[in-house]
Amino acid sequence: MGFFLEATLGGLMTGMLYSLVALGFVLIYKASGVFNFAQGAMVLFAALAMARFSEWFPQLLGLDSKVLGNLLAMAGAMLLMVAVAWLIERLVLGKLVNQEGITLLMATLGITYFLDGFGQTLFGSEIYKIDIGLPKDPIFLLQGMFEGGVLVNKEDLYAAVIAASLVISLSLFFQYTSTGRALRAVADDHQAAQSIGIPLSRIWVIVWSVAGFVALVAGMIWGSKLGVQFSLSLVALKALPVVILGGLTSVPGAIIGGLIIGVGEKLSEVFLGPALGGGIEIWFGYVLVLLVLLVRPQGLFGEKIIDRV
Amino acid sequence: MFYRENGQFKTTYRSDLQIFPIAQDRIGVLLLLAFAFIAVPLMADEYTFRAILIPFLILSLAALGLNILVGYCGQVSLGTGAFMAVGAYAAYNFLVRIEGMPLLVAILMGGVCATGVGVLFGIPSLRIKGLYLAVATLAAQFFVDWTFLRISWFTNNSSSGSVSVSNLHVFGLPIESPLQRYMLCLGFVAVFALLAKNLVRSAIGREWMAIRDMDVAAAVIGIRPMYAKLTAFAVSSFIVGVAGALWAFVYLGSWEPAAFSIDRSFQLLFMVIIGGLGSIMGSFFGAAFIVVLPIFLNQALPALGSLVGVVISTALVAHVELMIFGALIVWFLIVEPHGLAKLWSIGKQKLRLWPFPH
What we know:
heterodimer, A: two-stranded antiparallel ribbon, 2 strands, B: mainly alpha, ABC transporter involved in vitamin B12 uptake, BtuC, two-stranded antiparallel sheet, two-stranded antiparallel ribbon
């Protein structure tokens, strides 16, 4: 029982991190109808920028404080992500208005290649560390109830808390600020939003910047966990089934989808893995999604797709 | 002046329905085939065969298969690499496990197995559409990758999943030198391109296009979505499977599952989009572009660097290559969203009026 709980908790923590990446997908899809394959590349790019800036800035300015250095680096990386968002809107999306979904998807794949190459040209391609002071020691919970208690990684716990608070603040932002309202209006209907005077291009820049911010946070957490390296951009492939499972248009869906896949992956690896030869977490999420989609083609929380002739 | 159909009257139904209705097109295709079968073997050297022509031919075959699914039937698939892998490993198993199996039969059987897997993973397309389907086909990609990596029966119990073939023969002729490999691939490509060209203008091809343009409307006028979609998946994965077997046997020789990773799927999708959705010719243009571009960049960048006086390291070349590749793809999508095939057909239209446009 203790072991089962431990696996479940571990899965929940990982799932929260998947949701964080998935959130970036959903935000952009909702606001601009673009399935942004470049989200993973943005995570890598942001993490690379963060890692290198936190090294460069203190050296340049002669700072000693690590906190200040990290904050500066984060601000720098955020500025960079806003610039990327602006450039993407200016150079790519603005020119591809009214194209089909598949063309836009391909364009974001092109952006993925570009960002992967650009990030590594700019910041180098070794493995870097991000140290934002997350404690690494494990803690034991519920020692009274089970023998040995339940082992939880403190770092994962902090990461999950950060992710959860980010999700809550984003939902508040969408629900209660005027920018958030404009974003939702654009998501509902581009033309109607434009006709009442919402500037589409500025909204897109904002959405991509927010997605960039989410990517930065995800990159910081994943980066401090695994180190910043090229494989970080593959996190996007882990987040894809999460997005689809939750439904492309639903923010809560991304969270719940992430938790389901995180837990399912961990439990299946622990309990089914030995029988099947291990490594099944590579495809578990996708096959789960396939089965769910057969029952609910729009994902668990997506808007119902209605076909008209 | 020369490319014009004036005066070419069609007096029978047969001539009205022929595959290339304009005489100049027929001559052009024959010249192209003659060029590929006779002139290229005389001119090309070993490096050109190995690095450009053979991968170009095999990947155009795969792109052709994918184009049937994505371009003609409108079902976006990100699992092409998986179907290639199924073709390759199935053909390998037929060749190794059955004594005296002819190579051609093994390759075609690889295609047949890929068809089965393709139809299986095509079943969700009856419920799922668009981007949801694209992600669902990724399930095929990851599941198949895992299968060939972990289940050692498929790889004849080699622990790493890496297998190799040697001593290939077709009708008693060895397939060893680059020229022989090239001719084998060219034969396959020519036959399959002709079959595909005919298929897409037949009844089933028109059903696919109806489904692509609006599946609800197509169902209303009596096209069975299940039949149309699953046949598209079947035909597409058969061709892709054959291409996979060729890629493994003829181009790689020895391979492991990583040769058919998700990057391969994306690469093929790029070929189809850049070449032109819903165009047989476009598959070849796209494959040529995607195969030649990295080679060109790889050669040109260090040369360019030394011209300016900067030494460009190999790692940097790889990264800059990625950048330019990505940027070019975006640029292409912006400038010509309908792909190179569209440019081709615009060119043909212009040629009809040349030199006296209205």
